[in-house]
Design a protein that fits this description.
single chain, mainly alpha, two-stranded antiparallel sheet, 39% helix, globular
Length: 147
């Protein structure tokens, strides 16, 4: 669990830098595990900026079409076509769930409630059984507050 949690923190720090601390705001638009690279000491870095958009701080980004990967696209982006830092944060949230739960965001052959990762996790949360979503490969090696 500690390595997974470190990867989550590294990606969060990178995303924070892109959104708040660089000269311009960078909206990545394709946050997903395949675009998270690990170096030799398992430090996580965001990669693949092919869909990224830049804009000045305080200015509304001008995107008009949906870009990204199915399962990581926020409902707002699907509805409006406008990417934002919030749509990146949504995708990062899906990545965190994927790392924690040990499964893909969409399982087409799963039962209706387990098909969409975000829906399944929300259902478990609302039923007071959130620890059910934890990847069994983690075993007992985790800190519940971090999960």
């Amino acid at each position: 669990w500690s390595q997974r949690f470190k990867i989550i923190k590294d990606v969060a720090a990178g995303l924070c830098y892109l959104h708040q601390h660089w000269v311009q705001v960078i909206i990545h638009r394709d946050i997903k595990p395949a675009n998270i690279l690990l170096d030799g000491t398992m430090n996580a870095k965001l990669g693949d900026f092919g869909l990224a958009k830049l804009h000045d701080h305080g200015i509304d980004p001008q995107t008009s079409h949906v870009a990204g990967t199915l399962g990581y696209i926020s409902p707002e982006l699907s509805r409006t076509g406008k990417a934002s830092t919030s749509s990146d944060v949504y995708a990062f949230g899906v990545v965190m769930l994927e790392i924690t739960c040990g499964r893909k965001p969409i399982l087409p052959r799963a039962s209706q409630i387990k098909m969409i990762l975000t829906d399944w996790v929300l259902d478990c949360w609302e039923n007071g059984d959130i620890m059910q979503v934890l990847d069994q490969m983690i075993g007992n090696e985790y800190i519940e507050e971090q999960v």
